[in-house]
Amino acid sequence: MTAPATAAVRSDRAPFETADWGLFVAVSLIWGASFLFIFIGLETLHPGLITWMRVGLGALALAAFPSARRRIEARDRRTLVALSVVWVGIPFTLFPLAEQHINSAVTGLLNGATPIFAALIGGLFFARPTRGPQRLGLLIGFVGVALVSLGGASGAGGSAVTGVLMVLAATFFYGVSVNIAGPLQQKYGSMTVMAKMLALATIWTAPFGIYGLSDSSFEIGPVAATVVLGVVGTGVAFALMGTLIGRVGGPRGSFITYLIPVVSLVLGVVFLDDRVAPLALGGVVFVIAGAILAGRRES
Fold first, then answer.
1. Owning domain of residue 274
2. Does 196 fall in a domain?
3. Which of 162, 250, 259, 270 has the smallest number of Cβ neighbours within 10 A?
């Protein structure tokens, strides 16, 4: 669940200040907790309604920031529409569907593969081939993804396999988004791009959300969890992420991806009594190591 990098304002090599660490930890905790909130919402809400509420509330939260209202030039709107589908519409729909089959901890562990997919897709389709440590990172990372997938699907039959495949598909689309969003973010800023993408994605996710109304019951706990997921986990988190990237640069700001699986694992085990196979726990070590190598600065 990471935002692509914008142009760095400060030196990439400047030490983190206290405010930087505060933003870094806050975004990691918020996005790591998003899988827990999705799981709670699924207790009484349809997956489509969770996605629609999340996207719509996130769009409203970002609309409150003046920088989100900057106009997008006509020539860039087609890319913006495409991003609203592949960065928000599809993956945000897949995560609640996946968590009907696998627990929140495994979902978060698999999400840690985002930088690996981003590097692979960049090399295959965007003329950004991986070199040296990046190639090693891809290899190690895919070993980790395989281990987490096998561990997450073990002992639960075809249903868990379906959930794992949904999360991997969502993570793949995140990898695509990272590669095509960069020029827009450099031109207009992270806040502007994300706010308008969420507004568009609210339209795309509306049919599934409206369909889910008849299959949902509105109890306080699940509704509150989904509201927090939308306002804080989507809107506020992207605002904080945009601020962090502006302060420390995109490469180091994106390091939050490496903490999200750890946060989701701890929260799932503590609050939902999630069970994670040892194979998956070993796999996440490979995923994080591979992501760090794949995320090395390009030569």
1. 18-294
2. yes
3. 270
Sole residue written with tokens 């450099």: 186
Q: Is residue 5 situated within a structural domain?
A: no
| pLDDT tens per residue across span 121-173 | 877 777 767 677 767 877 887 788 788 777 766 655 568 889 989 999 999 99
| Contacts of residue 245, Cβ cutoff 8 Å, sequence gap at least 6 | 3, 5, 6, 8, 190, 253
Lookup: tokens for 157 = 């039959």
Q: Which amino acid is at 102?
A: I
3 located within any domain: no
Which tens digits make up the pLDDT trace of 108-123?
A: 888 877 877 877 887 7
CA atoms within 13 A on the CB side of 167: 32
Query: pTM of the full predicted structure?
Result: 0.85
Chain-centroid distance, C-alpha 144: 18
Q: Which residue has the tokens 């008849």?
A: 214
Question: Is residue 142 in a domain?
Answer: yes
